[in-house]
Amino acid sequence: MEAKPTFTDRLIEAIRQKRSLLCVGLDPQLRYIPPDMRAAAVARYRQAFEAIGRLYAQFNREVIDAVEPFVIAVKPQMAFYEAYGQWGLWAFAEIVQYARSKGLIVIEDAKRGDGGDTAEAYADGHLGEVSVLGSNGVELTKAESPIRVDAMTVQGWIGSACVEPFVARVKQYGTGVFIVDKTSFRPNSEVEQIVTRDGLTNWQALAHLVSKWGKGTEGSYGYRNIGVVMGATYPTDAPTMRWILPNAWFLVPGYGGPQDGGADGAVVGVNSDGLGCVVNSSRGVIFAWHPVSKSRFQGPPENYRESAAQAAEFARDELNAALQRSGKLNF
Question: Is 328 marked active-site?
């Protein structure tokens, strides 16, 4: 039987089809959603968490429709959903399924980090299959969770006790993991910068562990399904990360919006084949209409879809221009 395409296989095929490295973060915040949409949600569902869940689902669906021609993936950050309990999780599940129906890859930003049975449960629910009741209620069977995604972010500082259950699911189901390693936050993480007894920074030491964990997760194109988060705001560190992890994927936050690391910085870690990085922009696209985005496409709230589409198209083209300048636009 022919093996199914893995997460990175599908990522590569999407990049080549759309000629884009762009991922859009679906991180809804009430204060940046157009006021008329908020008012309509309250009028229909009153001041209830249901109103917020349904509002988030509607907003995200319309953003997905607007940006789909220009992006290969979406990255919902779980924190913005789980804060609203069952209705927030309902909205998360809704937009995961909707994004998939539009042919987009879903990367969940959850940054899970624990060990033992807890890590097993996280890995099952987000990347594998969970136990469910069988037809007689006595025997158990397996099914996909409604929040299963194509890939997710995982904290690696606990080490193998945390990461290995996720690696096992990646190998079994062809899903993907990005280990949180070199983040985009400013000021720089003091934990990531601690120097070990071997003379490496913590983030470099963790990257070497990721190299070990990723062995055996290669897809049909030779890229591994265990990658790292490598922030666009620290481009001078990207070549070192690439040297340690030549065939791993980098999830690159910090491009666009308030953290803007710039397009040239975002693509430093891209390999000569034009692959190896998926670059994320969140509020710079989904809230492009609002001043918080610092976008050139700001406008009236009712035009938020058009603003998001224009911002996504611009980001795709800006990243490709940066690849062209670096001689890496090879897809």
Answer: no
What is the SS3 assignment for 316? helix
> Residue 254: left if φ>0, alpha if ψ -120 to 50, beta else—which one?
left
| Bridge partners for 73 per DSSP | 23, 105
Q: Residue 35: how many CA atoms within 13 Å on its side-chain side?
A: 2
Q: How far apart are CA 175 and CA 90, in angstroms?
A: 22
pLDDT > 70? residue 2: no
Average pLDDT over residues 48-76: 98
Report the pLDDT averaged over residues 299-304. Answer: 97
4: number of Cβ within 10 Å: 10
* Two structure tokens written together for 129: 């299959």
Partners of 132 in the β-ladder: 141
Quick check: bond before 35 cis, omega within 30?
no
Token reading at 197: 């007894």
pTM comes to 0.96
Catalytic residue among 4, 102, 111, 171: 111
Say which CATH class 7-325 falls into: alpha beta
* pLDDT for 194: 86
Q: Which residues 6+ apart lie within 8 Å of 132 measured at CB?
A: 140, 141, 142, 143
Question: What are the sequence ranges of the domains in the chain?
Answer: 7-325
CA 309 from chain centre, in angstroms, equals: 19
